[in-house]
Backbone:
């Protein structure tokens, strides 16, 4: 794979972070539950941080993308996903957000696996860990929303 193809994939990851930011921000504004709103506001802020990290790899800041060119990181599996919508039921919105965090986590793990630069590998592993943390928060929130009888 060429450097330009890797840059396109990082660009797509940036778009995913922007989309997640917008979705989380909108849910935070729309929900009446203060705790849910706060969780989604924090998730939105984290997505902006992830976007900035990824943008550093696309800027001429001395960071070079260094991947093993033989790896398959399964970009095709994430093509043509439906847009996030804030008009869905809260449990469905949380479930969709949960799934997107899982996909982001898997994507960053794949980037780490094909990175040949240790610093770059650590960056992507850190992003994967952050996304896993988001997923866990959303899973807790989902159980309480989708199955209120558990509480």
Residues:
């Amino acid at each position: 794979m060429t450097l330009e193809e890797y840059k396109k994939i990082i660009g797509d990851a940036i778009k995913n972070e922007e989309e997640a930011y917008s979705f989380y921000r909108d849910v935070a504004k729309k929900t009446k539950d203060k705790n849910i709103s706060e969780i989604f506001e924090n998730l939105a802020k984290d997505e902006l941080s992830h976007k900035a990290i990824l943008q550093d790899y696309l800027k001429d800041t001395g960071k070079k993308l260094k991947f093993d060119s033989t790896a398959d990181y399964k970009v095709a599996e994430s093509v043509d996903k439906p847009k996030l919508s804030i008009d869905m039921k809260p449990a469905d919105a949380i479930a969709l957000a949960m799934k997107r965090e899982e996909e982001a986590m898997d994507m960053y793990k794949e980037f780490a696996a094909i990175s040949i630069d240790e610093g770059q590998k650590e960056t992507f592993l850190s992003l994967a860990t952050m996304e896993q943390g988001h997923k866990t928060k959303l899973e807790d929130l989902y159980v309480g929303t989708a199955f209120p009888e558990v509480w």
